[in-house]
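Re: the 922-residue chain
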Amino acid sequence: MNKQQLASQIWKAANKMRGSLDANDYKDLILGLMFYKYLSTREVEFFVSNGLPIESLEVHLNGENERRVAQAQDQLGYFIEHQDLFSTWEDDLNELRPSKVIEATQAFDAKVNPAYKSIFHEIFSPLAAAVPKLGTDATAQGKKLRELIRIVRDIPTGSRQDYDVLGYVYEYLISHFAANAGKSAGEFYTPHQVSLVMAEIVGHHLKGRDSIQVYDPTSGSASLLLNIGEAITRRSGNPDSIQYYAQELKKAAYSLTRMNLVMRDIKPANIVTREGDSLGADWPMIDPHTNEYHPLFVDAVVSNPPYSAEWERPKTGSDPRFAYGLAPEKTADYAFLLHELYHLKDDGILAIVLPHGVLFRGGEEASIRTQLVERNHIDAIIGLPANIFYGTGIATIIMILKKQRDDDSILFVDASKGFSKMGKKNELRHRDIRKIVDTVTERRSEDKYSRLVSKHEIKDNHYNLNIPRYVDSSEPAETWDIYATMFGGIPQTEIDALSTYWDALPGLRETVFTSTTETHARVREDLHSKNQLVEAVRQHPSTQAFMRDYVQAFAGWDEILGDTLVEGLNEVNMTTIEGELRNQLFERLQQVPIVDDYTVYQIFADHWFTTNRDLEVLKGQGWGTIRQVEPNMVLKKKDGKNTEVQDGWLGTILPFGLVQKELLTKDFEELSIMEVRLAEAQERVAELFDSLSEEQLGSGDTSITNAAGDAFAVGGVKDRLAPLLEDITSPEIDVLSEYLETKGAAKKRIITAHPEVDWASMTPNKSGTYTDTVVRKRIEDLRRASDFAEGAIEPVLIEALDLLDEVKEAKKAITDREAKIHLETKNLIETLDDETAKRLLRMKWVRGMLTDIESVPTQTINELIDEIEHLDAKYATTLSDIGKRANEAQTNLAEMMGRLTGPQRDMEGIHELATILSGEQA
């Protein structure tokens, strides 16, 4: 399995057995066990690599062996006895008791190297505290504990490649626990997409530095710190150049911080953590050995502190962190911001998530805000979509600050409209992340999205930083031109609103529109039909040139991508490759107008997700995985329970559908034709069903529908049709019926006596007569072919039965054909030669993506056509036209009323109404 499949499977298994256990407790259990397994594996690998045979570990790894204990403590920072190793638990799983796990965590604490105390001390206390919550007694607890260990043992923790898998699984589980943890989720997790925005902005600012210190004073799971580290590593190529500082108040979250950092294979010397209140117990450390004061100033601070939390303000004003003022006791947002700004180096950068209210709230916060603006600390403010964080739906921002800036303007970005709906939450898409990052790093202004605002303008707004004051991202209200509403035509100003298209497609506007006055125009008379307009726009020379230029912009990129990713697979740098290809994409898009670059980038990113996953597998597990297939496991009901069973095979890298399309072309096409015919037959059956009335469909014993009442029931149709056909007769049917009642030579006499019967339509037996079965079939055919009265139900039922038989046979034929092709595909993948495998990889990674990218110009032109049609329809009917139609309708109604007859009083009323409608009333 790839890491995504593994993470998904582990989450499903873990969530299935959670039962009523609180999500936070369960998080502490499964993530704690993962980390314990990781440390156990590292210790085993360490001693084996240092010459200890694995079979001798039981003898050497005990608390009495001071040499081995010291060796592990010096190199790893901890020591675990053999009896407490995760692998030992696995070997004796049936004997494992909850008390054993709790005792092992206590023994671990006792053997931590004092120099590594900040990393490992009490790191398993949340795990130990959660074990008793697994059940009401030791037996129930033990059963659940053993199930958990069976889940965790599938997670790889050995090779260097496994660190990435382990880290991914860990992050995946944390995010899913956060989604299920309600309001407490914010205590430990910042959504990955928000982390990426902050990481890319920070990474861009820090590029080129030899060593970097990063600090998060509210570290939670450390996912934010780790994303910053990855962004920096992509630019520097040296993960060991980063030192991580983390502080966390909540004990469980503090354990997550340390576990996540350690499991990413970060050197312990590069991890400095503290448990405590960042506001109440500031970072500057007193060295316990020298009693010296060490202030901490770092290259970057990143954080997602608790929103509007209460805090205990310092009793004196001497704390240098809060020189710009003290945040209110009920809302510590600016306290966190000032704390973090204080710990920045002069050339550092701060990225912090805050509630939207910090931009405009008054009192002490307004005073602090004024100081931050006046001293040029605020670099950018990014408005995020609502409902994007776990545990809260409030609007949030990312604020970017620096200690020293040459520019006194602030960039405002309203990114609140860019997201996709994922379940109950909103989520930034790849395109949204990229656009935010590019806008901030390039300090770009864009209508309805971002704007650089001078300090002078902010002063004029009394230091109110509310984004809508500076960026109006609202959609413009629909306007209606009075002249066009009365007399028709389209205002030139509304056509001008599409100037982006007209500038890029010269001459098209003049082809589509013709002027009626100086201020108004209309769509040409010969373009009012949909097809005519589409043809005129698409075939226009400017449109054709635009399409050619777009294709030309990507000319040769397929070869470059194929050579880089497929031929050069072994040389691909997984840390930097996505950025390199992304830059190539945007460079090519510079040659093309109109097209939204980020729409194209989203296509690239969607495809890259699969390509990146494949590359990880091929580089991590070897080229041989290209020929690997694996069981396709699905959940099916068995004895009332969901049971995982195999349903065919899947290609680890190469999809069966791609292989079939490229290598089993004839079979693939024939199967496609069969599927099309099946779909057509099913569609026709549905049409026949819909053509019948409720009365014709029947009810109860006479019903011809299934239990749901939404389709034919074959048995019901047959039962309804049989007696209807039985009543049909004809001279030929009468003769054939007589034939069925005779025997022997009499049958031949009937054949001879009735030449008018189409005997040739039946197949005779050796004696020259016909079997009863053949004759009955002929009678049925004759009855089915009868001339039925218009609107009769019989033809509908006959056609439906024939089609239902066809559907049944087609489904079986398709199933049989699919099974045959499926096995052929499996064999093909397992025996592929390298050249064919590479060709298929190019098809999957490159051709599929470029096909989708090449569809964008057509979508762009279609959007223009939609805009033109909207303008044409908007003023197609004038108010004058509506008035004329209303008058005509009133006159016609008045005339019809004049022809009515009835009681005197009724007629007097009708006459008066007719008079009003005709406009003749005095």
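Residues 794-830 form the longest helix (37 residues).
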